[in-house]
Amino acid sequence: MRNKYSIFSLIKNALSYHENWQRAWKDPTPKKEYDAVIIGGGGHGLATAYYLAKKHNMQNIAVVEKGWIGGGNTGRNTTIIRSNYLWDASAGLYDHALKIWEGLSQELNYNVMFSQRGVMNLAHNLQDVRDLKRRTHANRLNGIDAVYLNTQEVKKFCPIINTSQDIRYPVLGGTLQKRAGTARHDAVAWGYARGADEMGVDIIQNCEVKGIKRNGDVVEGIETTKGFIKTKKIGVVAAGHSSVIANMAGVRLPLESKPLQALVSEPVKPIIDTVVMSNAVHAYVSQSDKGELVIGAGTDDYISYSQKGSHQIVEGTLNAILELYPIFSRMRMLRQWGGIVDICPDASPILSKTSIKGLYFNCGWGTGGFKATPGSGDLFAHTIANDEPHKLNAAFNLNRFVSGDLVDEHGAAAVAH
Amino acid sequence: MFLINCPYCGERDQQEFKAGGEAHIERPKQPTELSDDQWAEYLFMRKNIKGVQFERWNHAHGCRKWFNMARDTSNDEIKAIYKMGEKPPPQ
Question: What is the CATH number of domain B3-83?
């Protein structure tokens, strides 16, 4: 039994200079066979393993990760959590996740630093105003908290925003979801890893998948850098590299992988206590607990796995940030990085069975997967365990690209994708 | 960010160009006879290769002409540039 984290364990370990903490997860060598294998040890993959073990009584499972857990996009995103999506299917999916976030630290006995500081989305032109009002109504009909703010209310909620009507794209209003906010991204991966490991899940790091073995239309196992692993069920949660795995298995996916950049500033005292996102000018900013401004830029338009983006993308975002927040004009940026995101034609994810029995894909989260981590894991575990989607992810099947029943969130989500 | 040698204008900064995605996807000759699966394949399904990929680019802020490129998507290295209608270079 794992030691529980508490104020008492903190005091106890302080007495031994924090040198005797139990390790949070084991480092096992892979067994010959598992009931299910999850490819990808990011937040979504670890959450999937956690819920498979916890809710579906599947303990003989493994997560294989080519690097180290949480070292991919889980550790690269801007940590924003919200559920203010337009369409019913998306609202159901993302609010399911948000409800789990609200109790996640207690459930995992791991502080994921979930902070419901609110997310405000700005409108800069009349069409934005109409779209955001429509989305506010749609959200409320779906039981998601949302309010529309006029320019003065935006200024009151976040006083450092420049609400002058003389700027190129003046702030005409905005929406606010108060239950939205941020969480500590790598703590989410670590918390799920610790929870899954405790229930017997093998977390195998530095183990890259080299091939998917099929017998006709049934999966038999995976070839990895640590040898062949036999399994009847494979859940692929490989984010930007989903197509690479799909090509190994001979499955066609509608994804394009593109670089998405983010950057952080030097740490400063608390200046912005919420998350502000702006679709029209593509600028969003929040402040981490360390004091850094966390800024998300956009994607490049070309396919790349290089984890580098173009300079002009960052420049465009910073231009917009400076117009909206003149107070940041002398801030220095500390770090900039790129992650590879798998984007679907309709900017909605795929949580689905495939034409191959025992092969499941959880991908296509594009630029906004972090917020869905707990819900995605829960619903994907349900899909794998029952070989049937849960009603909340039924709309996010792969067949929607054949039927035409898309969940078009490109413009309908609160930000551009 | 990289430099692209436009076959019509010469070497220019990548931000002058617009990426057009996977190349050599042929428009269906008889669209009315396509099944839903075939439409999905044509419209949505992509190879999304990590490695050398053939793709279309447009010199949007230059001559505005389309051309093809063979590019290694794992490191953005451009292997070859060839005009529309030409066959892709051998790998």
Answer: 3.30.2270.10
